[in-house]
Structures are given as C-alpha cells and as structure tokens.
C-alpha cells in the first residue's frame, strides 16, 4: 500500500513484505483505530456520504463545504486550524515519499510499531541509533559520510550550529566567501531559525545526537518541527510531553512517514469525529448570528401574537370559529423559531442563499488565486501563525451596524447535498409548526366562551 493512501488508516502501516503492524497495544488506541476505520460515530451520524470527510479532503464538494471552507471554519470559529494544516501536509508528504527512488528511501528506515510503543511507554530513549547505524553504515561505507569520516570532519554535537564569523575568516582568509554564506543564512531568518528551533526541541527531549542530515527531506522535517512540534511554535499541535518526545526520537532517526504514526491517529480522529461534524452543522446555518437572532425574535413574536389573539377571542363573546384566526400566527411563529433554532433563516432558504462570512466579505483576491495560495505546501509549512486578530476584515466588520449585518450580502449555495439537508430541516420545521399550531388552536377552541366583553 502506498503511504499516500495509508494516511486514512493511521493505526497501521504496510511493511516491505506487505504485512500490517499495529500502532499500539493499548485498548484506548485500538478503540480509536476501530472507530476511524469503521467510519461510524454518534458525533458524525446523519452526515450524508456526499459531505463525508474523505470527500471534502479529496475536493469532491462545492462551496460552502470545500476544504478551504473547512480550514476557514477551523481557523476563525474553532481556532484549531493546525490539525487540518498538518494533516494536509502529511498527506502531500506521503505522496512525495512514494515518488522517491528506492536508493533514497533506504537512507530513512521504517519506524516500526514496536519502536513507537517503546517510545510512548518511555522505556527506551536511545536504543534507535544502534539499529539505525547498522542500516545506514552499509550504504555509506567507504564514502565521505561514513561514521569515521563524519567524526573527523565535524567535531561538534550540533551540525546546524553556525560557526563564529571571526574564526571562519581566520581559517578561510579574507577573500573567502565561506563566512558570508553562513552570515547570510543567519540574517535571512528562515532556514537558520528553523534549525535553531528544531535543535532546541531535540535537546529538550533529551537527544544526545543530531539527526542524519543525508536522509531525504531532512530540511523539511526541520521546518515541520519548528512549526508544529516544538513547544511554543507558531502552529503548535496539542501534543502531550510524552507524544512530543516519542515523535522527536522517531524524527531523530528517520524521515520516513511512519515516524508520525504516534500522533496521526489522534489528529485524524479529532478531524473526523469532532471537527468535521461540527463544520457540517455550522455550514447548515445560512445566516450570520444577527440574522439568526432576528429570525428567532420574529418566531417568538409570531407565537406571542397568536397567543394574545386566541386569548382575547376566548375571553370575548365571539364564536369559537373565530379562534382559528390565530392559526397563521401560531404556524409562522413556530416554524420560523424551529428553523432559526437550527441556525436557518426561512427567507434565505427560500432563495437557497446564505450570507457571506465576515472574512469573505472583504476578500480582495480572486477565488482561484486564494485556492492556489491555500493549497500550496509553502503555506502549510509557513512560520506564520493562525492568529487572525490583525487581519484587515476584523476591524472593518466590527464597524458595521446591526441592521447592515442582518442585511449582509448573500450568495448561492452550490453544494446540492447541503441544500437537501436544509430542505429537510425546513420541512421538519413546517411540519412541527403545523402540528403544534393545530394542537394549540384546538386547546383554545375547547375552552368555553368568556363573558368579559
């Protein structure tokens, strides 16, 4: 099985002989794996296959349910976009790894399930270097990268440490550009900062040796550690200290995709069983919060009007048949309130429209350019944070008055599966409004006539 597809089953990994190794022996981990594999969960019940997590990730849906909409929801609503960003990066990384030639794959051995369990249990911290050296030694024998050659060439524990500028100039001479290249790297920020953060993370995890730099995509691993794994990083994942230590020990030894098995199960479970159902429920809401509150107010007003009309007619000498006059107020009020309680405005639903989200109202770039920028690997491994307080649309949206928010711009809902869900909710609201209105009117009609006036 190629690793570009194995991400869907994070609890397992295909070995060279085609066998499958379980990620963990713990009962809790097994239950998570089984839940992900089965695709059944009380939290995701009722979501149609057309809006499933796999279909959204694969790009098989229309707005407002695309993967970019999913990311915006996690960023602006749940404030947990780093999980989906890391998941998308990992999927792309598995694809790139499968495309590597076998000679390069051999430099980064598979991180086995037994090693992952041992690291999570904290029973071994420095047993991997021996096995790793045995696998790599045969490949690098009689080369400049053999163990003896490396020790003779580099006499420091940190291969990413930038040498002192004065010492470099003394050794290389005034006309050498060796020192300037390191100086430019240090002042330019990106690579040097990533190496520094990654080295600090390795040291905090108790590493006594640095990763093997000739493995494929080692620089990318360094960036990912500095963005998602290291404590205090810009998009730090919600990992326990033990999970972070086990992952760093794995990445210290290999850049193989199996090194991430210890955390991918938890991340995918969170996305599939928590974030995805919440996103679908949030997407069903076709109006913004002021519009939904306004719709709820109209529903309550209709119910109050119907109650007052029936009450006055009941206390009067009017015939009982007149009490049916309040039925439309009951019906409209109850149906509107039930739909608004689900986050839907019946007027917008009649048009199959939805309000533009606040971050969509002030978008300056075309949609295609935004999608291309969003799906780029540079954005997924960028040092930028997921904070949006400084984005231009935040103060501009706050300045809008309530009436203008209620009458915000609308857009057509393109996804047919979402429209079907909204149709179902609307029909349920109408049916419930009709039944409850009949019951309430019947109760008032059963009361004898009053004699107040």
UniProtKB/TrEMBL annotation:
Residues 1-30, 152-189 are annotated as: Disordered. The keyword Membrane applies. The lineage of its organism: Eukaryota, Fungi, Dikarya, Ascomycota, Pezizomycotina. Gene3D superfamilies: Regulator of G-protein Signalling 4, domain 2. SUPFAM superfamilies: Regulator of G-protein signaling, RGS. This is RGS domain-containing protein. It comes from the Eukaryota. The chain crosses the membrane at residues 293-313, 325-351, 425-447. Keywords: Membrane, Transmembrane, Transmembrane helix. InterPro entries: RGS_sf, RGS_subdomain_2.
């Amino acid at each position: 099985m190629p690793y570009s597809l194995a991400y869907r089953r994070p609890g397992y990994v295909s070995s060279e002989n085609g066998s499958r190794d379980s990620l963990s022996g713990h009962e809790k981990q097994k239950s998570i794996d089984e839940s992900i594999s089965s695709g059944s969960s009380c939290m995701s019940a009722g979501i149609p296959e057309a809006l499933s997590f796999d279909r959204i990730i694969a790009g098989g849906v229309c707005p407002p349910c695309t993967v970019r909409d999913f990311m915006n929801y996690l960023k602006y609503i749940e404030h947990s976009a780093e999980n989906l960003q890391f998941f998308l990066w990992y999927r792309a990384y598995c694809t790139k790894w499968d495309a590597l030639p076998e000679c390069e794959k051999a430099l980064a051995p598979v991180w086995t399930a037994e090693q992952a369990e041992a690291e999570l249990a904290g029973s071994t911290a420095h047993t991997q270097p021996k096995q790793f050296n045995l696998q790599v030694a045969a490949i690098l024998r009689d080369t400049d990268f053999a163990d003896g050659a490396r020790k003779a060439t580099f006499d420091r524990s940190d291969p990413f440490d930038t040498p002192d500028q004065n010492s470099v100039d003394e050794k290389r001479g005034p006309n050498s550009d060796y020192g300037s290249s390191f100086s430019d790297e240090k002042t330019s920020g990106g690579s040097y900062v990533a190496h520094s953060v990654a080295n600090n993370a390795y040291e905090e995890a108790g590493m006594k040796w640095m990763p093997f730099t000739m493995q494929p995509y080692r620089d990318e691993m360094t960036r990912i550690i500095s963005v998602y794994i290291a404590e205090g990083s810009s998009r730090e994942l919600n990992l326990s200290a033990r999970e972070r230590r086990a992952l760093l020990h794995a990445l210290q030894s290999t850049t193989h995709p199996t090194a991430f098995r210890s955390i991918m199960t938890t991340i995918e479970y969170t996305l599939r069983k928590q974030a995805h159902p919440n996103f679908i429920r949030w997407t069903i809401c076709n109006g913004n919060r002021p519009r939904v509150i306004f719709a709820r107010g109209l529903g309550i007003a209709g119910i109050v009007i119907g109650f007052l009309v029936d009450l006055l007619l009941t206390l009067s000498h009017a015939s009982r048949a007149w009490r049916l006059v309040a039925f439309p107020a009951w019906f409209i009020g109850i149906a509107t309130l039930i739909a608004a309680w689900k986050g839907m405005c019946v007027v917008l639903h009649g048009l199959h429209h939805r309000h533009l989200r606040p971050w969509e109202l002030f978008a300056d770039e075309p949609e295609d350019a935004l999608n291309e920028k969003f799906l780029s690997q540079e954005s997924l491994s960028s040092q930028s944070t997921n904070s949006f307080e400084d984005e231009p649309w935040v103060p501009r949206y706050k300045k809008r008055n309530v009436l203008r928010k209620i009458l915000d711009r609308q857009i057509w809902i393109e996804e047919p599966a979402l429209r079907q869900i909204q149709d179902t909710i609307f029909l349920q609201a109408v049916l419930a409004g009709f039944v409850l209105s009949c019951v309430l009117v019947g109760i008032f009609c059963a009361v004898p006539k009053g004699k107040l006036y």
